[in-house]
Design a protein that fits this description.
This is Zinc finger protein 234-like. It is found in: Nucleus. By secondary structure, this protein is an alpha+beta fold. Helix content is about 40%, strand content about 15%. The protein has a two-stranded antiparallel ribbon. It has a two-stranded antiparallel ribbon with strand order 3-4. Strands 5-6 form a two-stranded antiparallel sheet.
């Protein structure tokens, strides 16, 4: 009857909170006394209520009796199921009283409130950095321990964050799940989509091409594409760049600073992108395939360059003699014909070369390195052309036939 009348005759002497049952008051009193009479026999953790102990036991048994009727996912607690249901309904019943932002879980709003208060109660014992959430601290700890618990089942690459693994899987599947609702362009990562949206919605528009930007500084930087202006110059070699970030990245050429290390072979890189590309050597991953011949590549830029073999496109022209080239590197090497410049010098004998590949080939004269191995007899060679010539020594290997 007290449910209908609202009567709560049992009051807490310490805080004044009232209850309609004496048993509920008795349970409440444990908040003040700190009493936790129900202990887990497996791990010793203690609880104020027996229902909490029963729920906790499912951690050990793996029991998940509560199933979602929409997707079949199972949960060990009914509260977890209720929270999950909001993924399907989109319901966000918990609103922040300060900014109005809405959340699907009550725990999320508690975490969000720290944005307003600036409170960061979770501190790293190793470096002192503080965090608003325990889960964020747990992830941060992996920086110190080097732990990467999330492994790709296809190539074995490991990740510190589950979201990083999910993003990585798109490399294997080719899936681009995030689509722009305005132009249909698709992206592997949600961050790339958000960045792309500024092209349509940004308040600062380019008068020449109509491209839009979120920040005026980005628009000013973009204008150099049309003007050809390169305002950022290297003080050491004079090379110029459109963007300050490119200049900062370039400086590692002079300083030799290479902060990104391959954990498998120890090779160091000045840029994280270069490390990521290098990792494909170990994994054998080549996610970019030519649609015309099926050849696969570990970089999109390499695939784009390869496509010129099929199209016959030679976009790079020499301004002095008009000769055209498929690759920019080929044009740069060709320019030494006109200038006589040989920028790549051997550190051991001083001999100069106009191409880095020629320098690398020459260096083997000093090191004795013979990376090209005959599969038939095991003999090594310093140059690939020498290996190709050698194969004719073996019986049945006569690659050059008379046409007539």
């Amino acid at each position: 009857m007290r449910i209908h009348t609202g009567q709560k005759p049992f009051a807490c002497d310490l805080c004044g909170q009232r209850f309609n049952r004496k048993t509920t008051l008795n349970v409440h009193m444990r908040i003040h006394s700190g009493q936790k009479p129900f202990a887990c026999e497996l791990c010793g953790q203690r609880f104020k209520r027996k229902t909490n102990l029963n729920s906790h036991m499912r951690i050990h048994t793996g029991q998940k009796p509560f199933a979602c009727e929409l997707c079949g996912k199972r949960f060990s607690h009914t509260t977890s199921l209720k929270g999950h249901i909001r993924v399907h309904t989109g319901q966000k019943p918990f609103a922040c009283g300060l900014c109005g932002q809405k959340f699907s879980h009550k725990t999320h709003i508690k975490d969000h409130m720290r944005v307003h208060t600036g409170q960061k109660p979770f501190a790293c014992e190793l470096c002192g950095q503080r965090f608003t959430r325990q889960s964020t601290l747990n992830i941060h700890i992996r920086i110190h321990t080097g732990q990467k618990p999330f492994a790709c089942e296809l190539c074995g690459q490991r990740f510190r964050h589950e979201t990083s693994l999910k993003d990585h899987m798109c490399v294997h599947t080719g899936q681009k799940p995030f689509a722009c609702g305005l132009c249909g362009k698709r992206f592997r990562h949600e961050t790339r989509l958000k960045s792309h949206l500024s092209v349509h919605t940004g308040p600062f528009a380019c008068d020449l091409c109509g491209k839009r930007f979120r920040h005026e500084t980005r628009l000013k930087s973009h204008m150099s594409v049309h003007t050809g202006q390169m305002p950022f110059a290297c003080d050491l070699c004079g090379k110029r760049f459109r963007h300050e970030t490119r200049l900062k990245s370039h400086m590692s050429v002079h300083t030799g600073h290479k902060p990104f290390v391959c954990e498998l072979c120890g090779r160091r890189f000045s840029h994280k992108n270069n490390l990521n590309i290098h990792m494909t050597i170990h994994t054998g991953l080549k996610p970019f395939a030519c649609e015309l011949c099926g050849q696969r590549f570990n970089q999109k830029t390499t695939l784009n360059s390869h496509m010129r073999i099929h199209t016959g496109q030679n976009p790079y022209a020499c301004e002095l003699c008009g000769q055209r080239f498929r690759y920019k590197a080929s044009l740069n090497s060709h320019m030494s014909v006109h200038t006589g410049q040989k920028p790549f010098a051997c550190e051991l004998c001083g001999k100069g070369f106009n191409r880095k590949t020629d320098l690398n080939r020459h260096t083997r004269v000093h090191t004795g390195q013979k990376p090209f191995i005959c599969e038939l007899c095991g003999q090594g060679f310093s140059q690939k052309i020498s290996l190709n010539n050698h194969t004719s020594v073996h019986p049945g290997q006569k690659p050059f036939g008379c046409v007539t």
